[in-house]
């Protein structure tokens, strides 16, 4: 096993990998699963690791493949029916009383409006980030969402330091403009009408 490649080094990269996976998957359980698969694959192929590449970069490459594998599998599989549809005969009594009234329901609904707003914001953010030029979006994501430092982003993206700073500045300006148009202006209008 390579000297710089240890189980401890893998464990230290886990938070970074999870942030990246969560950004791509938007589901913490799924993100956790693909990170686990990534770390297992890395351990199994430790001999293939070449220390010329940053461990983090190598792991993100594996993670990208695990995420892509997941989406390919899920595209081939039909989603299962919800449990109450699959077994509507036997489960019906659990949801309704004999007189037909609802049998309780969820104990806490939380704040569904706030949750919806948060989901809407992230959908718009995702749209804004998707509309960035691909190289710019990748640089921004590696720096701000994955947490790589500037030198690592430059190596990963093949940029000079000066080009990196210009790219980051332009990405922030474009994201800010898009979010102002698509989210913040709409939010102000909704609050104004309320």
Automatic annotation (TrEMBL):
PROSITE patterns for this protein: SIGMA70_ECF (PS01063)
Residue ranges of every copy of the RNA polymerase sigma factor 70 region 4 type domain listed in the record: 131-175
Top-level taxon of the source organism: Bacteria
Keywords: DNA-binding, Sigma factor, Transcription, Transcription regulation
InterPro entries linked to this entry: RNA_pol_sigma-24-rel (IPR014289), RNA_pol_sigma-70-like (IPR039425), RNA_pol_sigma-70_dom (IPR014284), RNA_pol_sigma70_ECF_CS (IPR000838), RNA_pol_sigma70_r2 (IPR007627), RNA_pol_sigma70_r4_t2 (IPR013249), RNA_pol_sigma_r2 (IPR013325), RNA_pol_sigma_r3/r4-like (IPR013324)
Transferase found in the keyword field: no
RNA polymerase sigma-70 region domain sequence ranges: 11-76
Keyword Transcription regulation included in the entry's annotation: yes
Single Gene Ontology BP annotation: DNA-templated transcription initiation
Pfam families in alphabetical order: Sigma70_r2 (PF04542), Sigma70_r4_2 (PF08281)
GO MF entries: DNA binding; sigma factor activity
Family affiliation: Belongs to the sigma-70 factor family. ECF subfamily.
The protein's name in its UniProt record: RNA polymerase sigma factor
Lineage: Bacteria, Pseudomonadati, Pseudomonadota, Gammaproteobacteria, Methylococcales
